[in-house]
Design goal:
Blueprint lengths: L2 H17 L2 H7 L7 E2 L5 E2 H18 L3 H7 L2 H26 L7 E2 L6 E3 L5 E3 L5 H44 L5 H17 L1
Antiparallel strand pairs: 1-2, 3-4, 4-5
């Protein structure tokens, strides 16, 4: 396995592991997980954490066949993915560390802004998780590209199977005697339309 793919897979496993308890911890400490964040307020804290989890699972699926993953991506693309995943993991780790020192009695969660709190001196702080949206947005186009390629391969495989079934059905129809001309014509028309769709 190429080192870039091994590093990506390692980062994905780390993301899944670190991300698994984050939502519960944020809720326990009083953060409102329904507040929005992101460039266009496209995430809530809850959906951001879910997006990280989903991204990790989807990329683990895509990278499962490392040879195909290497063929479908350039080295520069793999390095970009690797860097973004590492930065995303750093966001999660830093957030976990910050939450370890968070005391609900002396720190207060901001009521209107996601992942922001004030300390005992009244100074505002934000959790590093706030930066995660930008890394997810950077990785999304790569995921979509790979997902599209995978979908095209599946469509071609299904088309080949369907074509084979249609050819076999045509042979069976020709040997069937008990179909009326109208039924035979209708069946041939439906096969023709299916072939055109392929």
């Amino acid at each position: 396995m190429a080192s870039s793919v091994a590093s990506i897979n390692s980062s994905l496993v780390n993301l899944k592991t670190t991300n698994s308890t984050l939502l519960i911890k944020l809720k326990q400490l009083g953060f409102n997980t329904e507040l929005t964040l992101g460039s266009e307020k496209e995430y809530t804290v809850k959906t951001l954490i879910q997006a990280i989890d989903t991204l990790a699972i989807q990329f683990l699926t895509i990278t499962a066949n490392s040879r195909q993953f290497i063929q479908r991506t350039s080295y520069a693309e793999r390095r970009t993915i690797e860097t973004c995943l590492r930065e995303l993991h750093t966001c999660l780790l830093q957030t976990q560390q910050d939450l370890q020192t968070f005391h609900p009695l002396t720190f207060h969660c901001h009521a209107a802004h996601a992942l922001i709190y004030t300390d005992e001196k009244g100074e505002y702080h934000c959790l590093k998780l706030l930066d995660a949206a930008q890394y997810i947005d950077t990785i999304k186009p790569y995921y979509r590209m790979l997902e599209t390629i995978t979908a095209h391969e599946r469509i071609h495989a299904l088309s080949a199977v369907l074509e084979n079934m249609l050819n076999r059905d045509t042979e069976i129809i020709d040997s069937e005697i008990d179909l009326t001309d109208e039924q035979t014509n209708a069946l041939q028309l439906s096969q023709y339309l299916i072939r055109q769709a392929l």
